[in-house]
Amino acid sequence: MHESSMEKGFKSDEMVYTNATNSKSVIMNFTGDAEYDIDTREIPGESVPFSIWTRLRQWSGMIGAEEFGIERIMEHMRTDQHPRDYFTIFFAANCNAATLATGFLGPVTFGLGWWDSFLAIIFFNVLGGLFPAMVATLGPKLGLRTMISPRYSFGWWPAKILVILNIINQIGWGVVNCLSGAAVLSDVGSDGIPLTACIVIVGCLAIVLGLFGYKVLHFYSRYSWMIMLVCFIITAGFGARFFVVIPMGSGSSEASNILSFSTSIIGFQAAWAPIAADYGVYMKEETKPWKVFSWAYAGLLSSQILLELLGAAIGTLCFNANPRFQQAYDVHGLGGLIGSVYEGMGSGVRGFGYFIEVLIGLSTAAVITTNIYSLGLSAQMVSKSLIVVPRLIWSVIGSVAFLAIALAARDYLETVLEDFLLICAYWLIPFGAVILLEHFIWRRNYEYDLDAWNDRSRLPYGIAASVSWVCATTLAVLSMSQDWWIGPIAASIPGSKSGTDISWILAAICATVIYVPTRMWERSQWKL
Where do the TM regions start and end (predicted)? Predict the structure, then answer.
């Protein structure tokens, strides 16, 4: 081994990784070549400083948290984890108030009717779920975390920019998910619970779960979705008689609203892409990719379609002739509408409704845990010197950040949700296009040099990927429609005063058209 990287930094692509369990450690070569089971204070022929990071890794091992970070999970470390775990983790993570709020945008924000909301939710989820489900297959095959994979197309330095964007992405999703859960929880009780307190409750529950890592995430997800699905079914049953069939629109205005709503749906699905493979790295390498894809796609599709359809149905309550629904929405937003379906049937039913609201409000903890977990991994990818800091520490720092932002943005759930979903689509769609094109054209049999993941001299320069991504993202910005910016392309499309958002469509086309020929040229020059 080399000189300890814990205090003296990196001299090469190798480092000391301490996996502290019962005063023992795994010292891992970060090129993935070797491991040694040794005492935490000794490396053969060399002394390892017993630093603060060593102690933190020992502590995380004592409390049962996952200690591994972004290093490749070798085959002998894999378990017999079944690919159905992809279904449960995606279903559980999406079976919450945030997914409900996405469907809610259809009738309330974009002015769609029931049937056009219904069709848009079905069609664009079927389309949008393909990419994260495909990315999920990389987990078992490569044993690498999701955001390591872009290094094989974007190269060393451009991939770091994407990692930073993903850190921002996960913090943003933590905010959105926390606000969604807190909005429902705040409606509990005759006078409600202060929204600030609800944000702290939901956030802290998620933080505790998220710090433990892979094993706890999968265990929690395996069972929590069952309870939440029952809660949403009960809510749908109580609310069915109040839902309104809003007429479908027509003309250019309708088309504009559908396209803008589609960007939100696609953005919600695409947001899983930068973290999808993180939850399959301990599966056996021989696990069939089609099985992984099928379970992941089924989990993404079923959860988002069911919950978004219910969200759209709840959104129609705002158009109910009974004024109590609008009043409930004005006071407690989405949470008020959910609670209103339990009113008028006696104190017993209303009390039961409060119990259901508590469970729905806390449901977002399942998805926030994935944000926290993957955020910690992404932070380790920014720089080699950051790998030595345990994932748990980065997760704590990210948790503090998302909780602080959620408290500051507590009164703007719908605005934050709409804007953030659209922004996700702007950069993630061209990112996804590049990753898929690279995989299916040049690495279709999972032909990745797995020893090169942390060696920039063996990775592409990323010229083709960077040019494609920058051009496509720029085009997406010119085609976007936000309250604070309407791109000239979006503004030029008739049908809406606020413009028609077609960013994800143009971004996908642009990335494809540019990447294929430029990547062929790049490979012909450097063979990487």
Answer: 86-106, 118-140, 161-186, 192-214, 226-246, 258-282, 294-314, 352-376, 388-408, 420-441, 461-482, 502-518
